[in-house]
Amino acid sequence: ETGVTQTPRHLVMGMTNKKSLKCEQHLGHNAMYWYKQSAKKPLELMFVYNFKEQTENNSVPSRFSPECPNSSHLFLHLHTLQPEDSALYLCASSQGDRTNTEAFFGQGTRLTVV
Amino acid sequence: GQQLNQSPQSMFIQEGEDVSMNCTSSSIFNTWLWYKQDPGEGPVLLIALYKAGELTSNGRLTAQFGITRKDSFLNISASIPSDVGIYFCAGRTGTASKLTFGTGTRLQVTL
Questions:
Q1: Which residues of B touch A104 (CB under 8 A)?
Q2: B3: three-class secondary structure by DSSP
Q3: Residues 6 or more apart in contact with residue B29 via CB below 8 angstroms
Q4: Once rounded to an integer, what is the mean pLDDT over residues A65-78?
């Protein structure tokens, strides 16, 4: 099993749909993250969870709703998205949100909003 | 917010050549990281640097943490086709979540 697994790998959804992205980590980490990667832009941190508690929300629109039921699982619920939300959504985890503990990334979900 | 200027944006080199790329910032970082991202995959950590002036190698890769703490470079020696991908620098000022990423250097290797 890979360390951080994301499903689905690809998703096409309409603007009125509701869908969810899933992330699971098998590394025993306590912190999990959602990043957005758009073409020709740096990775953008969206949300941070430490020990299941959300510790950071970087001004993300409410049409993105994260959920962290335990330290191993992270979801991103999507509803009424816009075409400009099309991007690669990356999940990452680390051994707590501490210094000198680097994040490991999943393979990402390629999202296309039509 | 903090910004990282990564250069070059893209490189086309021949197999066997050495590669050099760098990141600069107007802000000080206490950690520099270098990631590689293959097409359709997530970024994979290559090298982490934690001290100003630190020089660290990982196989054919060598990275340095600039003495001013505002820059870092990555060198790849004797490039091979599997080095193709996008290389990202990232700087950190605090905890793991406080990462700022560069825009990436796309590396193409021709035979």
A1: 45
A2: coil
A3: B69, B70, B91, B92, B93, B100
A4: 96
